[in-house]
Design goal:
The chain has helices spanning about 10-20, 30-45, 60-65, 80-90, 90-100, 125-130; strands at about 20-25, 70, 105-110, 120-125, 135-140, 155, 170, 180, 190, 200-205, 210, 220-230, 235, 240-245, 250, 255. The protein is α+β, with helices and mostly antiparallel strands and about 270 residues long. It binds 2-oxoglutaric acid (AKG).
Length: about 270
């Protein structure tokens, strides 16, 4: 067990402040996880056209099982309704608000990560969301048991106190995304081991990513949300409209492109 696991006698906010990443056991029940898993898997196997275009080749496992980005904006689909429900669900939202204060929801995503699929190289989420002046926070829900074999998330505790780093090219034999950041000096990656229904909360500067799914049989599905404090005054347009905890749509200013990489630097939308 890694030290990012929330101990019963530790406050969530204290653990988050110290590590920038907190693993909470069993927030969703087995039945709730089953409903999510079945709905998303049936959707992608029936029609994967709502998947995000990451430009992968046709013979890539991710071509058949593309990640879904912003599925909560598809109310006509069960996966859309489920995404929106869980994005605002009090067990998640109350914990997010303990960490951020008054909160807007900004993004939903679902990763299938089928057997042999590539992972996502180390990165910091707020490079993409560009929430300002406050950073974003992720709630990463394990829909399968996730570990090193099936490409479970790797995180760098303590990296949240560092600024955003302008990324370098990633090794695309291991990562479907093309950019990666380095591990801050003196810190190291922790391989998470999560059970279905566990949730990992992490800060927008926390360095994290995943290796390929080296299993021949196990998927590594996850439902992922990103949030920003209501104190944010700007965010990249892709994440708008934001949602209040009551589900009302809100628009704030659009953040300028570039961030730590300077002007002219463009990242793909979604991340
Ligand atoms: O699930 C993964 O492998 C990566 C997800 C991720 O990095 C993210 O949600 O920002």
């Amino acid at each position: 067990m890694s030290h990012i696991l929330l101990e019963p006698d530790v406050e969530l906010a204290d653990a988050y402040r110290d590590n920038g990443v907190v693993h909470v056991r069993g927030l969703l029940t087995a039945d709730e996880i089953e409903t999510i898993k079945v709905a998303f898997t049936e959707q992608v196997e029936l029609d994967n056209s709502i998947g995000h275009n990451d430009g992968v080749p046709d013979d890539d496992p991710l071509a058949r099982y593309p990640r879904f980005v912003q599925p909560h904006r598809r109310p006509e689909l069960e996966v859309g309704r489920l995404s929106r429900h869980w994005m605002l669900e009090p067990r998640i939202m109350q914990r997010v608000q303990q960490l951020l204060g008054p909160t807007f929801a900004a993004q939903s995503m679902f990763y299938f990560k089928p057997p042999t699929a590539r992972g996502q190289a180390l990165h910091q989420d707020n490079l993409f969301l560009r929430a300002h002046p406050e950073t974003c926070l992720a709630a990463w829900i394990a829909v399968d048991d996730c570990d090193a074999e099936n490409g479970g998330l790797k995180v760098v505790p303590g990296s949240h106190v560092y600024d955003l780093e302008c990324p370098e090219p990633a090794d695309e034999s291991e990562s479907f995304s093309s950019v990666q950041v380095s591990i801050p000096p003196g810190l190291s990656t922790v391989q998470t081991e999560m059970r279905a229904g566990d949730v990992l909360f992490f800060h927008g500067s926390t360095v994290h990513g995943s290796l390929p799914n080296s299993s021949e049989t196990r998927f590594r599905r996850s439902l992922i949300f990103h949030y920003v404090p209501q104190a944010s005054v700007e965010i990249a347009t892709f994440y708008q409209p934001l949602l209040t905890p009551a589900g009302d749509e809100v628009w704030i200013d659009e953040s300028a492109a570039g961030g730590p990489c300077g002007t002219g630097w463009e990242l793909p939308e979604g991340h």
